[in-house]
Amino acid sequence: MSFSVQDCQCMAKAIALAKRGKYTTAPNPNVGCVLVKDGQIIGEGYHRKAGEGHAEVNAAADAKQRGFSLKGASCYVTLEPCSHVGRTPACATMLVEQQVAEVVIAMVDPNPQVAGRGIKRLEEAGIKVRTGLMEHSARALNPGFLSRVERKRPFVRLKLAGSIDAKIALANGESKWITSAHSRSDVQRERAASHAILSTATTVIRDNASLNVRFNELGSLAEQLDETLLRQPLRVIIDRKQRLAEAAQDLNIFKNSESFWLAGHQSQTQLPAAKQLVIEDTPNFLPQLMQELAEAEVNDIWVEAGANFAAALIQANLVDQLICYQAGLLMGADAHSLVGFEGYQSMSALNSWQCLETRRIGPDIKTIWIPQAQGTH
């Protein structure tokens, strides 16, 4: 299917619009839309928040406010228009009613509730539909949503922070602070972009972690966001040995208003968790947890935990990205290691990763890695 330069420009604009919803749309996908008539952009929109107008509806409202009719217009949208009525009306039906002439779609929606039905609705109404324009870029907008729908588990990003020699604490346990304030601010931005933060009772107790987003630490991002719209990530704490109850009165996580979920082998009703995920004590615990989180419409997870849990996730093949912050320190052989693997006896047994990105964060280095097999597709 061929596309013109103008087609590409309009879809690129729609993709840029979709990115504006990065911090607010979950569990819905990020979607952008551009409406064009007689070679002129007449409306723009993006999906801002679940329960509010979809990108197509917002673009149509923008066109109407500018004084334009959608009749005969072309619609460029990053994801197939929905055909079902949920928290908002069906976008495909709206486009039919507004008599648009053509809809150009970057990617078909893999969600079974949509999955080609939006396209069918449009074509049955005589609207020309073209698909596949800048599909790779459109998929990159929503790795979490696509992982949940296609793989039945959230997209998992594991945060690691350590020294040049891959250590996270001195032998006596001291660890504050290894990385700089610049890196810690970047972690706040990564948290803000995440649907959920996953940690363990061990980490929460040791660090007295709140695991929330602190608006005053977002740096330049705070200038771009409305604090009232900022979505606090869902906090999921694994407590398999019921350790939190013993320390509850002293922990910050129980002192702020954002809800958290508790995962373990039995319910702990004495704790104020919004949801209890009770999972059998089997080797399949982590995959089962991921499945349950996906069923609860959790798209992506940012993991902040200790070396042993990091190793367990990696060995279970549940990590899609490693986000590594490296400080300019050397901490010595007796310091605690970044990941708690047991010693390997064969090079062929090692986990292999491909570096996607390297950049400086103040005095530190941030790298993003994906599993090697994933990178060779």
UniProtKB/TrEMBL annotation:
<feature type="binding site">
    <location>
        <position position="211"/>
    </location>
    <ligand>
        <name>substrate</name>
    </ligand>
</feature>
<dbReference type="GO" id="GO:0050661">
    <property type="term" value="F:NADP binding"/>
</dbReference>
<dbReference type="InterPro" id="IPR011549">
    <property type="entry name" value="RibD_C"/>
</dbReference>
<comment type="pathway">
    <text>Cofactor biosynthesis; riboflavin biosynthesis; 5-amino-6-(D-ribitylamino)uracil from GTP: step 2/4.</text>
</comment>
<keyword id="KW-0378">Hydrolase</keyword>
<keyword id="KW-0521">NADP</keyword>
<feature type="binding site">
    <location>
        <position position="304"/>
    </location>
    <ligand>
        <name>substrate</name>
    </ligand>
</feature>
<feature type="binding site">
    <location>
        <position position="161"/>
    </location>
    <ligand>
        <name>NADP(+)</name>
    </ligand>
</feature>
<dbReference type="GO" id="GO:0008703">
    <property type="term" value="F:5-amino-6-(5-phosphoribosylamino)uracil reductase activity"/>
</dbReference>
<dbReference type="InterPro" id="IPR024072">
    <property type="entry name" value="DHFR-like_dom_sf"/>
</dbReference>
<feature type="binding site">
    <location>
        <begin position="306"/>
        <end position="312"/>
    </location>
    <ligand>
        <name>NADP(+)</name>
    </ligand>
</feature>
<keyword id="KW-0479">Metal-binding</keyword>
<keyword id="KW-0686">Riboflavin biosynthesis</keyword>
<feature type="binding site">
    <location>
        <position position="191"/>
    </location>
    <ligand>
        <name>substrate</name>
    </ligand>
</feature>
<comment type="similarity">
    <text>In the N-terminal section; belongs to the cytidine and deoxycytidylate deaminase family.</text>
</comment>
<dbReference type="GO" id="GO:0008835">
    <property type="term" value="F:diaminohydroxyphosphoribosylaminopyrimidine deaminase activity"/>
</dbReference>
<dbReference type="Pfam" id="PF01872">
    <property type="entry name" value="RibD_C"/>
</dbReference>
<protein>
    <recommendedName>
        <fullName>Riboflavin biosynthesis protein RibD</fullName>
        <ecNumber>3.5.4.26</ecNumber>
        <ecNumber>1.1.1.193</ecNumber>
    </recommendedName>
</protein>
<dbReference type="GO" id="GO:0046872">
    <property type="term" value="F:metal ion binding"/>
</dbReference>
<feature type="binding site">
    <location>
        <position position="54"/>
    </location>
    <ligand>
        <name>Zn(2+)</name>
    </ligand>
</feature>
<comment type="similarity">
    <text>In the C-terminal section; belongs to the HTP reductase family.</text>
</comment>
<dbReference type="GO" id="GO:0009231">
    <property type="term" value="P:riboflavin biosynthetic process"/>
</dbReference>
<feature type="binding site">
    <location>
        <position position="203"/>
    </location>
    <ligand>
        <name>substrate</name>
    </ligand>
</feature>
<keyword id="KW-0511">Multifunctional enzyme</keyword>
<feature type="binding site">
    <location>
        <position position="207"/>
    </location>
    <ligand>
        <name>NADP(+)</name>
    </ligand>
</feature>
<feature type="binding site">
    <location>
        <position position="175"/>
    </location>
    <ligand>
        <name>substrate</name>
    </ligand>
</feature>
<feature type="domain" description="CMP/dCMP-type deaminase">
    <location>
        <begin position="5"/>
        <end position="130"/>
    </location>
</feature>
<dbReference type="Pfam" id="PF00383">
    <property type="entry name" value="dCMP_cyt_deam_1"/>
</dbReference>
<dbReference type="InterPro" id="IPR016193">
    <property type="entry name" value="Cytidine_deaminase-like"/>
</dbReference>
<feature type="binding site">
    <location>
        <position position="82"/>
    </location>
    <ligand>
        <name>Zn(2+)</name>
    </ligand>
</feature>
<keyword id="KW-0560">Oxidoreductase</keyword>
<dbReference type="InterPro" id="IPR002734">
    <property type="entry name" value="RibDG_C"/>
</dbReference>
<feature type="binding site">
    <location>
        <position position="177"/>
    </location>
    <ligand>
        <name>NADP(+)</name>
    </ligand>
</feature>
<feature type="binding site">
    <location>
        <position position="214"/>
    </location>
    <ligand>
        <name>substrate</name>
    </ligand>
</feature>
<keyword id="KW-0862">Zinc</keyword>
<comment type="pathway">
    <text>Cofactor biosynthesis; riboflavin biosynthesis; 5-amino-6-(D-ribitylamino)uracil from GTP: step 3/4.</text>
</comment>
<comment type="function">
    <text>Converts 2,5-diamino-6-(ribosylamino)-4(3h)-pyrimidinone 5'-phosphate into 5-amino-6-(ribosylamino)-2,4(1h,3h)-pyrimidinedione 5'-phosphate.</text>
</comment>
<feature type="binding site">
    <location>
        <position position="91"/>
    </location>
    <ligand>
        <name>Zn(2+)</name>
    </ligand>
</feature>
<dbReference type="InterPro" id="IPR004794">
    <property type="entry name" value="Eubact_RibD"/>
</dbReference>
<feature type="active site" description="Proton donor">
    <location>
        <position position="56"/>
    </location>
</feature>
<dbReference type="InterPro" id="IPR002125">
    <property type="entry name" value="CMP_dCMP_dom"/>
</dbReference>
<dbReference type="InterPro" id="IPR050765">
    <property type="entry name" value="Riboflavin_Biosynth_HTPR"/>
</dbReference>
